[in-house]
TrEMBL record:
Superkingdom as given in the UniProt entry: Eukaryota
Source organism of the structure: Zeugodacus cucurbitae (Melon fruit fly)
Gene Ontology MF term list: symporter activity
Cellular compartment(s): Cell membrane
UniProt protein name: Sodium-coupled monocarboxylate transporter 1
Signal sequence interval, chain numbering: none
Main location: membrane
């Protein structure tokens, strides 16, 4: 619908992996932190930690039903089954193996699910390319249709550009992988920092392969339907259902192939959901329940398993709401935009800015979240992006040569809606791809001046280990006593 610009989020991987390996993860590792939110209490204060854990829970609760609904959507499109019945089955399966197996079950199932995802998408690429007429034909048709054009515009209202996919891609992926408990708990479980860096390198390679395959599937889909768009013709009701329709079209005659595709979608959703459930249960118990009860391992397991069950029921019920969304991708990015920018900002503030203290950090996060909530809510109904043109001239029983333009938000128009350079800018017209970047900027714009204006807490004391190793050479830390010197040297090395 919107061309190849999404692939440029891969450019951010060149910055993401080094950032994780040498700036963020060493801080967690050197401080022996298995809970990434504990860092915020050590670096700032308990209030900042509680605020960010609340943001994590808020985002997870909004994301869970959206992510787990995706395979239900694909399965229902291919089989015609009741989408909510399928959603119930998927939630139940995910809850059971997460609840019984814990983090080990989550990690091992992710290994198999990852292999299924890559393999099935590769097969879909091959079959789609073959049906179009070969790789060169796919590229030629996509180029003629403008799907390979790169958008370098600086207009912040444009849905997807080189700039917002690259910059926001860096913030989004860094926050999700390096500052999200569901990912951090796996990384810090590795025996050495060297193992961590190798695993992150493999992660980068895996993301690169999956993203390239997914983007190629997109342009292959366009090449196949460039003169008979199923969405415009009404063969498909929503843009989110195009992929299952495409797979059924190119591989429906091959026994088992639609099933392989469905398994890949299931794998992607279950992998993300199981990790989120496991991390969410752990954070809720450790931060909000454990301090208020007498802790035992048996009691902790029972409480966390019960919480996971509640999340499963919530996801099933919320599926009725998710079904009404016009674009799952846009909804996902909007949800992340509320919190991920402030999360990334406050961690970077703590690791890179020695001057920052707890009071400044807390109020900068509040300012960022409140601002983003206002923007996201205010943008509802305003963000309607016109897709690139698509034709129906060669559809069966269609003798017209008229070319139609469709909008992925289900708005159909003869002329695409584009922002004029002379139009006045409104913050609510900001592309959802900029949300996480704006959230990060607000944190720094508020925290930096407050760190100088407001005094730090009386008990505030900065430990060098809580700063990123890249900052150590530029910061002369005043030791409380000379006995700390050996530990300091160890950290710097």
């Amino acid at each position: 619908s919107f061309g190849i610009n999404w692939v440029f989020s891969l450019a951010s991987l060149l910055i993401i992996i080094p950032t994780l390996c040498w700036i963020i993860i060493p801080v967690f590792y050197n401080n022996n932190l298995s809970n990434c939110y504990e860092y915020l209490e050590l670096r700032f204060n308990r209030s900042t930690r509680n605020l960010i854990t609340f943001a994590f829970m808020f985002t997870s609760f909004l994301w869970l039903p959206v992510i787990i609904f995706i395979p239900s959507l694909a399965f229902a499109q291919v089989t015609g089954s009741n989408i909510h019945l399928i959603n119930t089955y998927i939630c139940s399966i995910c809850v059971i193996y997460t609840m019984l197996g814990g983090i080990k079950a989550v990690v091992w199932t992710d290994v198999f699910q990852g292999a299924i995802m890559i393999g099935s998408v590769a097969v879909v690429c091959f079959l789609g390319t073959k049906k179009v007429g070969g790789f060169n034909e796919v590229i030629n048709i996509a180029a003629r249709g403008g799907r390979l054009d790169v958008n370098f515009t600086f207009d912040a209202r444009t849905r997807i550009t080189f700039w917002n996919t690259t910059i926001s891609g860096f913030v989004l992926w860094t926050a999700y992988v390096g500052l999200n408990q569901s990912c951090v708990q796996r990384v810090v479980a590795l025996p050495t920092l060297g193992h961590v860096r190798r695993s992150l390198l493999l992660f980068g390679i895996g993301v690169f392969v999956i993203m390239i395959l997914n983007c190629f599937v997109g342009i292959t889909m366009y090449a196949l339907y460039h003169d008979c768009d199923p969405l415009t013709r009404g063969y498909v009701q929503k843009a989110d259902k195009m992929m299952p329709f495409f797979v059924q079209d190119i591989a429906g005659h091959l026994k088992g192939m639609p099933g392989i595709f469905i398994s890949s979608v299931f794998s992607a959703a279950l992998s993300t959901t199981s990790a989120s459930l496991n991390a969410l249960a752990g954070v809720v118990y450790m931060d909000y329940i454990k301090p208020r009860i007498k802790h035992t391992e048996r009691r902790a397991n029972l409480i966390m398993r019960g919480f996971i069950c509640i999340c499963g029921v919530y996801s099933i019920i919320s599926g009725f709401i998710v079904e009404k969304f016009s674009s799952i991708l846009q909804v996902t990015y909007s949800i992340g935009g509320v919190t991920l920018g402030s999360v990334f900002g406050v961690y970077m503030l703590g690791m890179l800015v020695p001057r920052a203290h707890g009071i400044a950090a807390f109020w900068s996060v509040v300012a960022s979240m409140v601002s983003m909530i206002v923007i996201v809510v205010g943008a509802q109904g305003r963000l309607k992006y016109s897709a690139l043109p698509s034709s129906v001239e060669n559809c069966p029983a269609n003798n017209t040569n008229e070319t139609f333009f469709f909008n992925a938000t289900s708005t159909t128009s003869i002329n695409p809606q584009t922002s004029s350079a002379n139009d006045s800018f409104n913050i609510f017209d900001l592309s959802f791809n900029w949300y996480v970047t704006l959230g990060t900027l607000i944190v720094f714009l508020v925290a930096l001046p407050l760190s100088y204006i407001l005094p730090a807490e009386k008990n505030f004391k900065l430990d060098l280990k809580l700063l990123s190793p890249v900052v150590h050479p530029f910061y002369k830390y005043k030791l409380a006593n000379t006995e700390e010197l050996p530990e300091l040297k160890k950290v710097i090395i």
